[in-house]
Amino acid sequence: MRTILVVGTGFAGMWSALSAMRLIEQNGGIEATGIKVIVVSLEPTLVICPRLYESDADKMCVSLEELFQVTGIQFVPGLVDTIDTAQKRATIVDLAGIRSTLHYDRLVLAAGSHLKRPDIPGIHEHAFSIDQRNECANLDKHLHHLTSEPPHPARNTVVIVGGGFTGIEIAAEMPSRLRSILRSEDVRVVIIEQADSIGPELGPGPRPVIIEALAGLGVEYNLGAAVVSVDKTGVVTSRGDRIDSLSVIWTGGMEASALTRQIPGQRDHSGRLHVDSHLRIPSLRDIFVAGDAALAITDDQGHHALMSCQHAMRLGRFAGHNAAADLLALAPKPYNQPSYGTCLDLGPWGAVVTEGWDRQVRLTGSAAKAIKENINQAVIYPPKADRVEAFAAADPDCAGPTLA
Predict the structure, then answer these.
(1) 41-71 b/e with 16+ CB inside 10 Å = b?
(2) Cβ(290)–Cβ(301) below 8 Å
(3) N or C: at which end does the chain have fewer Cβ atoms within 10 angstroms?
(4) 10 Å Cβ neighbour count for 355?
(5) Which residues, 6+ apart, have CB-to-CB distance to 44 below 8 Å?
(6) CA dihedral 206, 210, 211, 217 (to 10 degrees)
(7) Are strands 157-161 and 188-193 parallel, antiparallel or unpaired?
């Protein structure tokens, strides 16, 4: 029996496993092909990462157990600790700390990414984040605990470090969330962004809309400044300014899973592995990469996939398909994703929808908000635990979502 090992149950990992099993099924199934698909992750769940800026974010996950069962995917609980590319094996550490080894014929690395935490004094001890579900739960618990503090400016102020996509979304959500918890209108939300513009990676297209929305929500931003230290009562910026706050949220950038460093290959500044058009490591025939761990060209214009849900889903479909196609001696499909759009949540103000890599604004306000809610609550969720429906959705030629 030959094995396709998928590392991770995020968007890329889930769709990789389904797409690989889809092609195996089309060619006679596990018994006829002698190929099985194994997925390794701590839990058989998909965390809905694009929703972690919302309240109750610790509940934003969906069980994949039944979906894997009906599609014939084998799940192994644990974390991949090491990958031996020479021997084609991975070491797994389960929840009890017991180590085991899995051999693979093809590996799909879809281990995702995590928040960068630079070596800034106090960041680990005093800054919150919304990168993982447990971190969201810790933040929510902290915000509700603020009611036990006497009213004062530091209690009523939230500082968000990073004015990118995530920082803007949590900042837009925070004023109403804080007012509801504290039962006070006297709240302050401040974004600190080291670039000279809010939403620097989003470009000038949606910026006027973002500025209008943040102003309407009462969110302040401090541009051209970096945070140089964090303590239990606030932050100090590179300008020497101090902002008193009991609630500092760090959103400053992402980096690929540390497992990428165990794979021989070229990496970008975020640790993502360069892959060819079939999402394979150029120097390793048996390893494919998908999602936030992959640096993949999306079109003939030279654009690269971003660390985003919309790219991870399609990358997963192609990586899984090509891993199975390789074992079945079938022609692989070159990955492409020419359509690109964004949908940025702006809290009670609404949202902004852009189209294309130049991010031309298409919708704003409540109309854009309806699209964002449909994406967050339906489009990005897994297919039903139905074999036919799941395999149809896993087709790499399926258009998939173009917004995230």
Answers:
(1) beebbbbbbbbbbbbebbebbeebeebbeeb
(2) no
(3) N
(4) 17
(5) 9, 63, 64, 65, 68, 75, 77
(6) 160
(7) parallel
Assigned token pair, 28: 């006679």
Instruction: Dump pLDDT digits (tens) for 297-325.
Output: 999 999 999 999 999 999 999 999 999 99
Which residue from 207, 252, 208, 264 is spatially nearest to 227, judged by alpha carbons?
Answer: 252
CB atoms < 10 A from the CB of 183, how many? 7
pLDDT at position 401 over 80: no
The CA-based dihedral angle spanning residues 144, 148, 149, 155, taken in that order and rounded to the nearest 10 degrees:
10
Task: Kindly list the structural domains of the chain, giving each domain's residue range(s) and its CATH number in brackets, ordered by start.
Answer: 2-115+254-339 (3.50.50.60), 123-250 (3.50.50.60)
| Distance of alpha carbon 297 from alpha carbon 279, whole angstroms | 9
For 228, counting Cβ atoms within 10 Å of its Cβ (0-12 exposed, 13-18 middle, 19+ buried), the class is middle
What is the amino acid identity at position 41?
S
Distant-in-sequence, close-in-space partners of 77: CB < 8 Å, separation ≥ 6: 40, 41, 42, 43, 44, 94, 95
* Distant-in-sequence contacts of 178-183, Cβ < 8 A, 24+ apart: 178/143, 181/143, 181/144, 181/146, 181/147, 182/146, 182/147, 182/151, 182/155, 182/156
Residue 90 in tokens: 């991975």
Reported as a single tens digit per residue, the pLDDT across 318-354 is 999 999 999 999 999 999 999 999 999 999 999 999 9
Query: What's the CA gap between 49 and 57, in Å, rounded?
Result: 9
- For 139, phi then psi, to 5°, come to -65, -45
Cβ(228)–Cβ(127) below 8 Å:
no
Contact 245, 398 (CB under 8 A): no
- What is the distance between the alpha carbons of residues 351 and 368, in angstroms, rounded to a whole number? 5
pTM passes above 0.85: yes
What is d(CA 60, CA 220) in angstroms, rounded to the nearest whole number?
A: 28
- CB contact at 8 A, 102 and 76: yes
The amino acid at residue 185 is E
Amino acid (one-letter) located at 308: S
Question: How does strand 351-355 pair with strand 360-364?
Answer: antiparallel
